[in-house]
Amino acid sequence: MAIGTKELAPSELDTFEDTRLVEELRKAKEELFNLRFQSATGQLESHGRIRAVKRDIARLYTVIRERELGIRATPAPVEAKAKKAKAKKAAEETPAAEGEAE
């Protein structure tokens, strides 16, 4: 990605949960509003930033819509991953402890 926010690369967006995508979208829209305001008052230094933010917004909308349509996979919630990891670790430790007791 040549233009735009480096942290909003499409590969990064795949790892974001839906709530974080909506939050990033809100922040990008707020930044675009501020950039447009600066442009109107003649205070904008980087006109290319407006284009980059617009692309970020479009990218976020695309990922959200693709998830709605089932084209792009939604990542599993972090809590579920943590619980699965703890359960797996506990299951691995339990047989080892039983084997030592016998």
TrEMBL record:
A Gene Ontology molecular function term of the record: structural constituent of ribosome
Low complexity bias locations: 93-102
One GO CC annotation: cytosolic large ribosomal subunit
Keywords: Ribonucleoprotein, Ribosomal protein
Listed CDD domains: Ribosomal_L29_HIP
SUPFAM superfamilies: Ribosomal protein L29 (L29p)
Domain of life: Bacteria
GO biological process: translation
Record-linked InterPro entries: Ribosomal_protein_uL29 (IPR050063), Ribosomal_uL29 (IPR001854), Ribosomal_uL29_CS (IPR018254), Ribosomal_uL29_sf (IPR036049)
Annotated spans, Disordered: 77-102
Family: Belongs to the universal ribosomal protein uL29 family.
This protein's name: Large ribosomal subunit protein uL29
Gene responsible for this protein: rpmC
